Amino acid sequence: MKITKESAKAWKAEYDLINAMEREELKARLATETVEQSIRAYFAMCQLATSLAASTDVPPELQEMREKHIIGLTDKWERLAERVKNV
């Protein structure tokens, strides 16, 4: 199926609206959320991302690299959480 230039622009415009709404929701949530709640939400997202890292839509060598990257980010956030807890 071929996508026309007009279809791609319309698709992008819809995603821009969705992204703008999500940014506003995030700003509102972060204004009332504690650091601990924010970090817990991030860890939950990392766990989801790690489970999705084994996606079959990319070559196996990229899957492994993607998973290592996500695990590394999770480790960094866990260390940050420990520092924040000790502050």
Poorly predicted residue ranges: none
Biggest sheet, in brief? none
Counting helices, strands and paired strands, the structural category is mainly alpha
- The CA-CA distance between the termini, in Å, is 55 Å
The helix count comes to 3
Any idea what the radius of gyration is? 18 Å
Number of strands: 0
- H/E series, N to C? HHH
Query: Beta-strand level of the residues, as a percent range?
Result: under 5%
Q: What percent of residues adopt helix (DSSP H or I)?
A: over 70%
Average pLDDT metric: 81
Shape: flat
Describe what you observe in this structure.
The structure is a single chain. With 87 residues, the chain is mainly α. It contains three helices and no strands. Helix 2 runs antiparallel to helix 3 (60-85). It is flat. The model has no long low-confidence stretch (mean pLDDT 81).
Would you spell out the secondary-structure blueprint of this structure?
Elements: H1 5-32, H2 35-52, H3 60-85
How do you describe this structure in short?
This protein has 87 residues and is mostly helical. The protein contains three helices and no strands. 83% of the residues lie in helices and 0% in strands.
Give structural attributes.
single chain; 87 residues; mainly alpha; 0% strand
